[in-house]
Write a structure and sequence with these properties.
Largest sheet of chain B: none
Strand order of the largest sheet of chain A: 3-2-4-1-5-6-7
Strand content of chain B: under 5%
Structural class of chain A: alpha/beta
Largest sheet of chain A: 7 strands, parallel
Strand content of chain A: 15-25%
Bound molecules: guanosine-5'-triphosphate, magnesium ion
Distance between the termini of chain B: 30 Å
Oligomer: heterodimer
Number of strands of chain B: 0
Order of helices and strands of chain B: HHHHHHHHHHHH
Helix content of chain B: 55-70%
Number of domains of chain A: 1
Largest interface: A-B, 19 and 25 residues
Radius of gyration of chain A: 16 Å
Helix content of chain A: 25-40%
Mean pLDDT of chain A: 90
CATH class of chain B: Mainly Alpha
Radius of gyration of chain B: 16 Å
Shape of chain A: globular
Number of strands of chain A: 7
Chain lengths: 228, 229
């Protein structure tokens, strides 16, 4: 994840996601976080379907109480079952992705080692609140997914996920008319909070709805590999 | 106590402990633990049985691994400890969990300390059992068998009480009182630490709790759970 401030001072606007250090030879690890029900699993499923023919993908889910998310991805046949693993978080979704990442790292390394040359590892966080953020020790870049129907004031409320994630996704924009949400306002509030980092809108009821996000991942992977 | 050892005592040390309930989740699921008194009885049962076995293995690993004269002797001792601990853990699911917790502890520990003992336990296929990893880590941090015993009991007590706070919403202050009371019982068992430190692994205690193993297996088959065990 890019630092809130660049190396040259408070307002250095360096928003490029992480490049792979020369000593590291492994998959790009992408965190997908956001509030409960905002569409994280649906997004990971859509991205797998859009990218699986060109990239080797694996997924680690963090389920709060069941292995629902892993199960959903398996039954949607987004990826072969042995490419999807679930981690238990002991009631604390944010602890498992931020404070004590041991169980997640363990799962990530195990599943990466079982498959030949993984390109991208998705780590889906358990649904949490606006203060949750992935540790840089666990993922290289992170996507924060918020729900249009969760209130159009969420971008204004901010928090580390909204402000600092490498990509902010405003999902379920198809629901805006039903919940009187102003998506343009959400976009402009979010942009104002994010110091130039990208914001995208999506509707995942459309199978191609994650197309722009898939492009962002291709670009991030390119950058991760070449540092350019 | 030195800063290095305090690091290992602290539940915030990133070794995956927050997702381990030491059987409380399964015990609550079957209705054995429902409130503070039943939790205290559960905890007393654990420390007197498998808790003491874990403490004994931590003490033994701490003391003996650092005395091994060469790499071969070290590897033999580690294999021996591993086999003996496995033999005292009938539940396959709990053996699996113990290795997972050991691996997670060593992930952080190897970034801080690089002793021959840490290297040898890190090389165990599938991960060293948690008490053996803990013993090696305590030694690397400058602690002795008595410290390893205390830490082992402390982690068990803390895992049980914090899981109960999160799963059942029990009063954390009341549980701190329980922890202090049970802690004194643990301190009593620590007089055995010196003896445990010098035993051959095969002679270490083998107090078992059938219910611990049965609940462990039950936990592994729960389709809805929050903790690894
Ligand atoms: N209308 C609409 N529904 C969506 C969209 N994306 C997801 N959903 C639905 O929203 C619900 C929750 O989606 P999930 O993908 O399970 O959300 P999640 O963030 O993974 O949820 P947790 O893991 O439980 O926090 C499901 O019923 C999805 O079908 C969208 O763009 N539009
Ligand atoms: Mg989900």
């Amino acid at each position: 994840m890019s630092p809130p401030h660049g190396p040259h001072g408070l307002f250095q606007n360096d928003v490029r996601p992480a490049a792979r250090p020369p000593s590291v030879d492994r998959a790009l690890r992408i965190g997908v976080g956001g509030p409960v029900g905002s569409g994280k699993t649906t997004l990971v499923g859509s991205l797998c379907r859009l990218l699986r023919d060109e990239l080797s993908l694996v997924v680690v889910t963090n389920d709060i109480f069941t292995s629902e998310d892993a199960q959903a991805l398996r039954s949607a046949a987004a990826l072969p079952a042995d490419r999807i693993v679930a981690v238990e978080t002991g009631c604390c979704p944010h602890t498992a992705i931020r404070d004590d990442i041991a169980a997640n790292l363990d799962a990530v390394e195990q599943v990466e080692s079982l498959h030949h040359r993984v390109d991208v590892t998705f780590v889906e966080s358990g649904g949490d609140n606006l203060t949750a953020i992935f540790s840089q020790g666990l993922v290289d870049v992170q996507i924060f997914v918020i729900d249009t129907a969760g209130g159009d004031d969420v971008p204004r409320k901010g928090g580390p996920g909204v402000a600092l994630a490498d990509l902010l996704v405003i999902n379920k924009v198809d629901l805006a008319p039903y919940v009187a949400a102003d998506v343009d306002l959400m976009l402009s509030d979010a942009t104002a909070r994010r110091d130039g980092r990208p914001v995208m809108r999506s509707s995942l009821v459309d199978p191609e709805g994650a197309g722009e996000i898939a492009d962002w991942i291709r670009h991030s992977l390119e950058h991760w590999r070449t540092g350019e | 106590m030195d800063a290095a050892l305090l690091l290992l005592v602290d539940g915030r040390f990133p070794a995956g402990g927050h997702a381990y309930s030491a059987g409380v989740e399964a015990a609550a699921a079957v209705g054995d633990v429902v409130d503070t008194p039943t939790l205290e009885r559960y905890l007393l049962g654990r420390i007197a049985t498998t808790g003491r076995v874990d403490a004994a293995f931590a003490a033994n690993s701490c003391a003996r691994l650092q005395c091994a004269t060469d790499a071969d002797a070290l590897a033999v001792l580690v294999a021996n400890l591993d086999e003996e601990y496995s033999a005292r853990t009938p539940s396959p699911y709990l053996r699996h969990t113990s290795r997972r917790l050991g691996r997670q502890l060593l992930r952080a520990v190897t970034r801080i300390w690089t002793t021959p003992a840490i290297g040898a336990v890190s090389a165990v296929a599938g991960g060293a059992h948690q008490p053996i990893a803990l013993g090696a880590a305590v030694a690397a941090a400058g602690g002795d068998a008595n410290d390893a015993t205390a830490l082992s009991f402390h982690h068990l007590t803390a895992a049980v009480t914090s899981a109960a706070v999160r799963l059942l919403g029990l009063d954390p202050i009341e549980l701190a009182v329980v922890q202090e009371r049970v802690g004194r019982r643990c301190d009593g068992f620590r007089s055995d630490a010196t003896e445990w430190a010098s035993m051959a692994p095969a002679d270490l205690p083998a107090w078992g709790g059938s219910l611990t193993e049965i609940l462990g297996e039950h936990h592994g088959s729960l389709d809805a759970r929050m903790f690894v065990a």
